[in-house]
Design a protein that fits this description.
The protein is an all-alpha fold and about 600 residues long. Helix content is about 70%, strand content about 0%. The chain has 23 helices and no strands.
Length: about 600
Amino acid sequence: MKSWKFGSLLKAFVRKKDIGPSQDTKLARCLSTLDLTALGIGSTLGVGVYVLAGSVSKTTAGPAVVVSFAIAAIASMFAGLCYAEFGARVPRAGSAYVYSYVTMGEFTAFLIGWTLILEYVIGSASVVRGLSTYVDALFNNSMRNAFESAAHMDVSHLSSYPDFFAFGVTLIFSAALAFGAKESSVANNFFTLVNLLVVLFVIIAGSLKADVNNWKTTPPCTEDSCDYGSGGFAPYGVAGIITGAATCFYGFIGFDCVATTGEEAKEPQKSIPIAIVASLTVVFLAYFGVSTVLTTVLPYYEQNPDAPFPYLFEKIGWSWAKWVVTIGAICGLCSSLLGAMFPLPRVIYAMASDGLIFEWMGRISSRFHTPLMGTFSAGLLTGVLAAIFELTQLVNMMSIGTLLAYSIVATCVLILRYEESEAYEKKEDRDPRTVAFVLKQLINANGLKHATRSTSRIVTYLVVCYLVLSICIGVIFAFYSDHVAKGTPAVVVPLTVLVAALLLVLQFIYKQPTSGKKLAFSVPLVPFLPALSIIINVYLMLMLDIMTWVRFLIWMLVGLSIYFCYGVRHSKMRQRKHAKAESDGNEESWKTEGFSKLT
């Protein structure tokens, strides 16, 4: 076997995917902007809309949960706009995987793709297990009792019984996705519509009993403690609002599945940006509406954190309404399951088509125009996980994958916005490679109007510096927030220096000339908006527990073994570059031979 040199391996890490202007694809282009918007709403607005507002308002933010949702929506919109630009720039299946392949190189793309597979598998398994639990609760846990008596399991870290219902539902949804994107989107549109109608019913019905004075009430306190804050609109203070926003942020996770439809959307460069922004807007309005109704009908300290709306309707004497809420929750879970399962085979298809994972997983059915094997293999894995695992400890795994993908996409937007201008491509970079030139270019004292190779590299290095500074600041806020609040000099002084350095780096990036490339959609306020998205995502990742990071690293080690044993050698980009090199070599030898004969 041919040995690999370190230099060759390094070239493999940084080789980038070439995306041409052609929109030819083996997948069926059948999804409209409405379909994509419904997919984004359905995957994001799951059962959380019926639970999240109650739990956050009671224990974290109080009535100010509406502000927490607004902050979370703005942070999610930052990430959504970055995805929207890439959806317009790179209309291909694969979402953040393809985006990072185009910008960062093959190795980073594989890491992101492998992370996305974990995110969607765990996300799908947790949703289908939640659906099973919710349905079972309606029938007094009869399924649980039957499964435990038939096949009881007594294994540490596993479920006490195999959930055959969850396994069967997963296979049914996998079949629906495998037999056509359009057919599955019709089912998703129905579930999403019912979910939105129920949310609208909750908002309208609840507003009839709303009393704004409930935002001013004071909870009962004992002499020793006051468990529910000081009362009023923000009983837990600003810290409670920010903590609530971090929790509410996870209620907006899921819209990125729209970005995986680049090869199935009819007009991806227009419909993907519109669908992402529209879906996030609708989801925010739904969260804002239900949280407002919930906290004005009942005081925040009287909320039921597990099932707030059935409890609310019972308190106001509308017991029948809890069944309407139940129907909406089930439809919300079904649309969330479709939204979570839909992008998984698309990411597998994109990676298999590039040769980074086993090629058979990306084969497209000539009849259904979907990645049939990838869909069923992903569905089988999801079903097994949903059947045998208690997924409460694995829910954070979905978050770490999503937040990492958000960060990579925002980083890619920064780098691509300052890439070398087309006017300078294939020309010799005449910028002097001196220290004086670089120092002057940090504030663009050289007066350059268009991005060159040198300015592009300067921005890349500055973005790396920004990422390092963001991690350092995030570590301080995540682990020493109490000292920051108290104003401890040993913590505040380094934090001040780091923040000043971060703002200076951001200013240097802002001063650099951009590529000037015209896009169907562009992120506004670059570099500030993507930079803000990065630091928010980094902070939220650092807030996850240590075991989440351990499980994530184990998953990445499995992926790296696949990449180094298979992906590096079977990469389609490697094969194309070798074929091109051989072609250029043959052409050069032909020219040389022909010249010698003429002379």
